[in-house]
Design goal:
The protein is of the alpha+beta class. The protein is 52% helix and 18% strand. It has helices at 2-39, 45-89, 108-113, 130-142, 191-226, 233-265, 277-294, 313-330, 376-381, 388-398; strands at 94-97, 103-106, 146-152, 158-168, 181-189, 274-276, 298-303, 308-310, 336-343, 347-354, 402-407, 413-420. Strand 9 and strand 10 form a beta hairpin. Helix 6 (233-265) packs parallel to helix 10 (388-398) and helix 8 (313-330) packs antiparallel against helix 10 (388-398). The longest helix has 45 residues, at 45-89. The chain is elongated and about 110 Å long. The two termini are 78 Å apart. Residues 1-19, 25-39 and 173-178 have low confidence and may be disordered.
Length: 430
Amino acid sequence: MVAATQQETQVPTARRWRGNAAVGALAATLLITGVLALSGAPFLLPALVGAIVIAVAALARPRAQRQMAAEMTLSQENVRAGIQAIVSGFADPVVVLDAQGNVTMFNAQAKAALPQLGIGRPLSFAVRSPEVVSAVERVLREGAVAETEFHEKVPVERSFEVRATPVRFDAAPAGATSSAIEIVMLFRDVTAARRLERMRVDFVANASHELRTPLASLYGFIETIEGPAKNDPAAQARFLAIMREQARRMSRLIDDLLSLSRIELKEHVHPTEDVRLDSVLSEVVDTLTPLALECRTKIVLEGANRVLVTGDRDELIRVFENLIENAVKYGQSGGRVDVALVDGERAASVTVRDYGPGIAPEHLPRLTERFYRVDVAESRQKGGTGLGLALVKHILNRHKARLLVRSELGAGASFEVVFPKPQGGESPGA
């Protein structure tokens, strides 16, 4: 500790000595020049002028060096500040690492996505992914861009695309070489894209399966009619009836798929016509009364009259056909289905309630997914396509309406549709 202090003291002392020597040399040179000029020895003046220039240069050199060093420090600080401003301006999470893999800067988006980030900490402290660590090592080893992807399941499931790029952030003079390599890590959240991709894959798989099942049944019955039942009219009639039902099932599935596709294409376009909800419900109840009689179920419609909402009449008929038909099919046989229309100041609502076995809580969040069924066998037996509530959801999204589902095991289920009314200066079709 003492040796270090002595060394630190000697350095400025030496610098002061060199500065004083330069001043003394300059003063002595000027004095000698004046004496020679007065004594009549002008032939020595050019040499003495050269000496003066050398002395002045020696005096100015330390100051120039200090100024250059200060400018270099200021330049580096400006570069870092500019880089931080650029990093902060990114919409995606960005993290900058040094050559040791420690964090040197990041933006607010990165901190929100990776809460364990900290200046001076290793990136692995916040990102526990062997793929990301390997990408960083590859950049340092090869000096080339590396890309990877990592997934995390806690606290929520997320997926990121990661791009690691080597850069030089130092402010070295032109032509100088530097080894100050750093790594810019760009994290792009692709969770929604991956979820949509999985949904598309599942959709294709489910649609293929739903179409393949009746097709296999049709092929089987055709072979039976052509073979063992070739000369049995009674068996042929029975098999043809089953084939007809399977063909209808395929037709309903294709119709629902096409309807879902059309509704999704125009989901962002809100309808503008006025529709009487009480009239729509009366028409749907009349249409489903034969099915209710077949299921020994009574549909009870009650509530307000002349309730107007902004919507598409045909689509709203489709919504309530699905909801009331489901209540009749899956409710209590021999029971009742209540359909209640309420006209409030801020919203109009329709509640369809059955008194069947109810729906377990774990199924409720997924009821509006395509092809999701609480009981697959029962749904197929009763002619369901697995797309009815998905259609309901997309139609209601187009109408800016909400679907609220409530159920308890053994106590039935209720599906409430809420239509907001225009407030203030809003136009009905806004």
